Amino acid sequence: MYRAALGADAFARLHPALQRFHGLQGRIGLRGHATTAPPAGLPARLLGGLLGTPLQARTGPVAFVLQAGPQEEHWTRHFPGRTMRSRLRLQADGRVVERLGPARLVFRLRETGGGLAMHLQSLHFFGIPCPGWLRPQVVAEERGTDAAGADGARLHFDVRAAVPLLGMVARYHGWLDLATAEALP
Fold first, then answer.
1. Which of 80, 96, 139, 181 could link 160 by a cystine bridge, Cβ 3.0 to 4.6 Å?
2. Which residues have a Cβ under 8 Å from the Cβ of 85 and sit 6 or more positions away?
3. CA distance 31 to 62
4. Cβ-count burial of 147 within 10 angstroms (0-12 exposed, 13-18 middle, 19+ buried)?
5. Residue 21 carries which DSSP code?
């Protein structure tokens, strides 16, 4: 799905760890580590609750379950104290749509210096288009590294979403160890 969204040339420029992760197919489990931050206040916390994003500041192990096919992926992130689920689908125009609770986010993917950045293009909430002035500022970036260990490859992620007038709704960062990838039933 990511090769199709980025194009073959841009996908080939991704760090090998990102190519490996985004080339996985089937139901795969991975382990890693994450740090989460709480939403900025009560309104942001209520919105985060609807979306299923982390609601407390925590650091610890993260388990990630990927169900990947050529046109759609289901991501389940088991953060310390919170499980977050989303479904990603490739559109015909090459953009990726993420369904997260009642939100439908449309992203354009970009390769940046071997890393991957997701740029929010539009948002619908409960099916209603979000006006531009209220659209969240989303930073969703991945990069790969080679670390010590059996395989050594890690996917590092950094996600932040802030909504005008509400502040930070979601914030988490960490890594997945690709050496832990295992097929799940």
1. 139
2. 52, 74, 75, 76, 77
3. 6
4. middle
5. H
pTM, two decimal places: 0.93
Is residue 78 within 8 A of residue 85, CB to CB? The reply is: no
Helix (H) or strand (E) holding 171: strand 167-183
Q: Which residue do the tokens 């490739």 mark? A: 90
- Separation CA 74–CA 27 (nearest Å): 9
Q: Using the 8-state DSSP alphabet, how is residue 147 labeled?
A: -
Quick: pLDDT tens for 49-67: 999 999 999 999 999 999 9
pLDDT at position 121 over 80: yes
**Residue 48 main-chain phi, psi, to 5 deg:** -60, -35
